[in-house]
Design brief:
This protein is an alpha/beta fold. The protein has 11 helices and 12 strands. A 5-stranded mixed beta sheet has the order 3-2-1-4-11, with helices on both faces. The longest helix is centred in the last third of the chain and has 18 residues. InterPro entries: Glyco_trans_2-like (IPR001173), Nucleotide-diphossugar_trans (IPR029044).
């Protein structure tokens, strides 16, 4: 049984839109767990009133993404999940999203699967997975490689984001849950899927499974909208900082092959130090 895990903190209008897209799925062979991490808006009341079939797990406001997702996964496994799918609340699933994910999972039962993403405002494809060369710390964007007519099927990638990530139970049994201790927010998803790949599980972006996202709502984008000394510090060291140096170090130590590690670290530090001002 597939369980969809959605961590939320406020922003009910996005959560409602996400849940409505799940209601419209052509396949209803799933259940939904929302991890409400201490929302102070109408989230709790609206979930109870409008979505009684949704399993709600609550936190105290200090879970952040990784611990929130782990809490939801533990609940799903206790309820009998054989697959889990992590989904951000600010995404809208195409009507056949679940059906396409389940079809790919049936054909590749040990694979970790991600989705093709589109900008909800423009309809433009914005994320189709990437491959990372640890030797040079350079990334290949699959969307730039593939002509529009070839954006179909499964494509092997180095890692995947957690915005629409299907994980088989076999992966959890072998490598455990997300690393909430060392990666409480950013990079936990890339780390987890990279670890899964190194443990022998295929990692694919499934171009048949499609999501619409709001890229301007990401924490990294919001942090950079109003640049300041405080924002720069948060970028490099805050839990929600997209350039968090400590998180990057943990990711590198866990995933980069030893011979390439010194350059990968130095290059990554330099990118983060200057990247705040370049985007």
């Amino acid at each position: 049984m597939l369980y969809i895990i959605i961590p939320v903190f406020n922003r009910w209008r996005y959560t409602r839109e996400c849940l409505e897209s799940l209601r419209q799925q052509t396949s209803q062979a799933f259940r939904t767990v929302v991890v409400d991490d201490g929302s102070t808006d109408e989230t709790a009341a609206a979930l109870a009133r409008d979505y009684p079939a949704v399993e709600v797990v609550t936190g105290d406001g200090n879970l952040f993404w990784t611990a929130g997702v782990n809490l939801g996964i533990r609940r799903a496994l206790a309820l009998g999940a054989t697959r889990v799918l992590t989904l951000n609340n600010d995404v809208v699933a195409a009507p056949d999203f679940v059906a396409q994910m389940l079809a790919a999972a049936a054909a590749h039962p040990t694979a970790v699967l991600g989705a093709l993403e589109f900008d909800a405002a423009t309809g433009e494809a914005i994320y189709g997975g990437e491959r990372l060369d640890f030797r040079t710390n350079t990334r290949t964007d699959l969307l730039q490689e593939l002509p529009t007519g070839q954006r179909t099927g499964l494509h092997p990638v180095t890692y995947l984001p957690g915005r629409g990530l299907l994980i088989p139970q076999a992966v959890i049994e072998k490598i455990g849950l997300f690393d909430e201790k060392r990666l409480p927010h950013y990079l936990a998803d890339f780390d987890y899927t990279s670890v899964a790949r190194r443990a022998g599980f295929p990692v694919y972006c499934n171009y048949a499974a499609q999501l619409s996202t709001y890229p301007e709502e990401s924490g990294q984008t919001l942090t950079r909208q109003h640049r300041s000394v405080k924002g720069y510090y948060q970028h490099l060291f805050g839990i929600r900082g997209g350039g968090n140096m400590v998180n990057f170090t943990h990711f590198a130590l866990k995933n980069c092959p030893g011979p390439y590690l010194p350059y990968f670290l130095l290059n990554g530090y330099a990118r983060r130090i200057v990247g705040y001002f370049l985007h």
